[in-house]
Specification:
CATH class: Alpha Beta
CATH superfamily: P-loop containing nucleotide triphosphate hydrolases
CATH topology: Rossmann fold
Helix content: 25-40%
Strand content: 5-15%
Radius of gyration: 15 Å
Oligomer: single chain
Order of helices and strands: EHEHEHH
Largest sheet: 3 strands, parallel
C-alpha cells in the first residue's frame, strides 16, 4: 500500500491490513520530499523504529540535480535508528536489486523468516554498513 504522507486516513482503519514495514521514499532532487518525510515521522509509533522503518533515497545517480544533501538523510537514519538505502530507479539492475532487498526486509519484519527478527536484522545492517 502506498501513501503520500502520514497520518493515514482513519475512515478505512477497519479495512487496513497490519503494517509490517514503513519505507519512507525521499527523492534526492526534491527538498519537499524530505520535508514531507520529516513531517510524517511524527505520526509513526516509536516501536516501529525498532526495525520496521527504512528510508529509501532515489535519484542518487544524478549528483548535479541533487537538492538534498545525502548527509542530511544519513543523519535522519541515525536519529531514528533506521537504515538508509540509496538507489537509482532509472537503472533496471539497481531497481530490481533494491526491490529484492526491500522484499527481504518485509519478509523479516512480517515474521516470515525463522530465527531473524526485524530488530536483529537492522542491527546486522548497521554493523555491515560500517559507518
Amino acid at each position: 500500500h502506498l501513501a503520500t504522507s502520514l497520518p493515514l486516513p482513519s475512515e478505512r482503519d477497519h479495512l487496513r491490513p497490519r503494517i509490517d514495514l514503513i519505507v519512507f521514499m525521499i527523492d534526492i532532487k526534491s527538498k519537499y520530499s524530505l520535508k514531507n518525510v520529516e513531517a510524517s515521522l511524527a505520526y509513526v509509533d516509536a516501536s516501529f523504529f525498532l526495525g520496521k522503518v527504512c528510508f529509501l533515497v532515489t535519484g542518487v545517480g544524478r549528483v548535479n540535480a541533487c537538492s538534498i544533501d545525502t548527509n542530511a538523510v544519513c543523519k535522519l537514519g541515525e536519529a531514528y535508528c533506521s537504515p538508509v538505502l540509496f538507489c537509482e530507479l532509472e537503472l533496471e539492475g539497481i531497481r530490481v536489486a533494491t526491490a529484492q532487498r526491500l522484499l527481504r526486509m518485509l519478509q523479516i519484519c512480517a515474521g516470515h523468516t525463522p530465527g531473524v527478527s526485524a530488530l536483529s536484522f537492522v542491527s546486522l545492517m548497521r554493523n555491515f554498513d560500517g559507518d
